Amino acid sequence: MAVIDRGVGNNVVPTVRAPRASKAKLTQIAIDLLVALAGIAVASLIRPGGEGLLIGTAILLLGWAAFMGRFRLYASRFITRRSDEIRRIFDSGVLAAASVAASAFTFDLMIDRIWLVTATAFGAIGLVFEREVMRRRFATLRAKGLIQRQVLLIGDNNESQLLAKMFDEETHLGYDVVDTIDPTRVGNPNELTTRVLQAARDAEAGGVVIAATAIEARHSNRLIRDLIEAGIHVELSSTLADIDPSRLTVRPLGRFPVVYVEPVQRHGWRAVAKRTFDLTLATLGVICLSPVLAMLAIAVRRDSEGPVIFKQSRVGKDGVPFDVMKFRTMVTNAEEILEDLQDNNEGAGPLFKMKEDPRVTKVGAVLRKTSLDELPQLFNVIKGEMSLVGPRPALASEMAAWDADLYGRLRVKPGITGMWQVSGRSETSFEEYTRLDLYYVDNWSIIIDLTILARTIPAVLKSDGAY
User: Fold this and answer.
1) N or C: which end of the chain has fewer CB atoms below 10 A?
2) Which helix (H) or strand (E) holds 164?
């Protein structure tokens, strides 16, 4: 990593020059172009492009490459969210196609319009799939501790400790904290800049993450300016944990950039849409799965004595109790035995989980492992007591261990599946369980519901029976 000297105040400190495009980035560009070209070739087999096929292909391909660069598709900070990456791919394709159309009009080129639309569509679809493969590949490598980005962490308070813990546990993010600097132990802005730049040079770190609450404004402004001038990437935490970025708008307020947090819209047409969505899918589910429901009911009845459906009082929206329905998976006196098993609890917080629970019947063990015991909750959804997606329906006894924040989960209906269920299931800590439920409540949208439903089946297939 190249280093030069530059003046900062009265000091001369090392400055890290911004590196040139990495081999990985150049490789990604080459792969993108090949995939786009393959999509164009497939489109050409379906619909000939006319006399101007070769020229049209060249303009489309070069235009696509240029616009993908313009839309920052090779800068990870702009494509962290999958939806942003997909949108940018299609936007760049549309503009590339417009460039072809404009060229055809200007220079009187014979280019088939249907071919142009088809080639753009095939190329965009190919790029979306290719980028998804690459995204998963990078996530896998980072989870193994590879291709990590070396960064310095500025701050030594609760926020910086949470950031450090997150980077350490969530290796797929790709951040490797090579050094931590406490700005409160540095006397003045010049000294802080000198120390950070020196540490960046020593550790060959290309980025700095600043915990906003750990540094004074007079230090942070100067430090950020000098680091950017030195070619180091700077990221400043917002202190807003678990708020979806789509709800944040950065705008100027005088000379301060401020973050406006958009309120969650749970009412009006959105509430109607969610209820319609729930009712439609739950009804179709009951109709399509009726033979399965009948067979499971017979299996439960033959396996052990007791009712087929187990009903248990749970806490619903706004704290209103309701009876959740499941296929019975335990012996009829399971609640009486529970007290004697509390010392064997493997669950988080007030949640009771036990892998070898002696109360579970033979058929019940299969139903739990496959999550088929949850199917009768479709009737709870039809009755309006539950939603397909939402926080786990809690027992009234569990509420005794809740803190004030967790009561916020009662603002929405509980769900058959949810963020907690698809993000770790029984291995998730109670703290994480709380965070995921509140994240869902605070950031709900139809898109989030669809995403969770899509992730539910893979989560069930990977289940160890603790869904």
Assistant:
1) N
2) helix 158-169
